[in-house]
Design brief:
Layout (H helix, E strand, L loop, with lengths): L7 E2 L4 E2 L4 E6 H4 L6 H6 L7 E7 L9 E8 L3 E2 L2 E2 L14 E7 L2 E7 L2 E7 L4 E4 L4 E6 L5 E8 L7 H5 L4 E5 L9 E5 L1
Antiparallel strand pairs: 1-2, 3-4, 4-5, 5-13, 6-7, 8-11, 8-13, 9-10, 9-12, 14-15
The structure holds D-sorbitol-6-phosphate and zinc ion (ZN).
C-alpha cells in the first residue's frame, strides 16, 4: 500500500476524512448495561447514539498500526455515564495508545483483580499494556473524543466483557457536589 496522511482537526477532534463510521446505539450496548431497569425505561430511545468510531482502511495485519477516532456522546443510563462496550484484544499480547482530543473522559482498565482508572482530556496520552481490558467513559457535558493507535492484528474479544464484565461502573455524582464529576460504583 501507499503511504498516506490525514489531518486531525484538534478543534473539532475529527479527521479531515475517513473510510468507515461505526455507530453504536443504546440497543447495541444492551448486553453491557447492568441496570436493565434503567435501559427498559429508555426503550423508546433504543436508536439514540452512544458512540461512533471513525475508521481508516489500514490492514488488520501484524506489522501495521491502526488508527481510529472514537466520539462518545454525553449521557447516562440510570446513573451510569455513556461508555464504550470495552474489550480485551483478541491477540492478548497487543498494547494500545489513546490520545485525548476533546472533552472529559476516563479510561477504565481491568486485568484479573487489578483495576486502573485514568482521566483523559485533550493532550493526554494513555498506555494500555497487553492483557488489560479497556473501556472509555464520557464523564463530561459534551462529546468526549480520543484517537487510538493499535497493532493491525490486535483484534477484539467482547465476549469476556459480556460474561465477566467490568467490576466498576462510572456513575454521575450529585449536582450539589463540587468534587469530581463521577463516582466509582463496584458491582
Ligand atoms: C481498538 C480501540 C478503540 C475502540 C473504540 C470503541 O482497539 O480500543 O478504537 O475499538 O474506542 O470501543 P469498543 O470497545 O466498542 O471497541
Ligand atoms: Zn483496544
Amino acid at each position: 500500500m501507499k503511504p498516506f496522511f490525514k489531518e486531525i482537526n484538534f478543534e473539532k477532534g475529527l479527521y479531515s476524512d475517513y473510510d468507515e463510521k461505526i455507530v453504536r446505539r443504546l440497543s447495541d450496548i444492551q448486553p453491557y448495561v447492568e441496570n436493565k431497569k434503567a435501559l427498559e425505561e429508555r426503550k423508546s430511545d433504543r436508536d439514540s447514539v452512544v458512540y461512533e468510531v471513525l475508521q481508516i482502511d489500514i490492514p488488520d495485519q501484524a506489522g501495521h498500526i491502526k488508527n481510529s477516532i472514537t466520539i462518545i456522546k454525553p449521557g447516562v443510563i440510570g446513573e451510569e455515564y455513556f461508555f464504550t462496550k470495552g474489550h480485551y484484544h483478541g491477540n492478548q499480547e497487543s498494547a494500545e495508545i489513546y490520545l485525548g482530543l476533546k472533552g472529559q473522559g476516563v479510561l477504565l482498565m481491568q486485568k484479573g483483580d487489578r483495576e486502573e482508572l485514568i482521566e483523559m482530556e485533550k493532550g493526554t496520552m494513555s498506555y494500555i499494556p497487553p492483557q488489560w481490558a479497556h473501556r472509555t467513559i464520557n464523564v463530561g457535558q459534551n462529546d468526549f473524543v480520543f484517537t487510538s493507535f493499535y497493532p493491525g492484528d490486535a483484534g477484539y474479544d467482547y465476549q469476556e466483557i459480556i460474561s465477566g464484565g467490568f467490576k466498576t461502573r462510572i456513575c454521575e455524582t450529585d449536582s450539589e457536589n463540587n468534587g469530581p464529576a463521577y463516582k466509582k460504583v463496584r458491582r
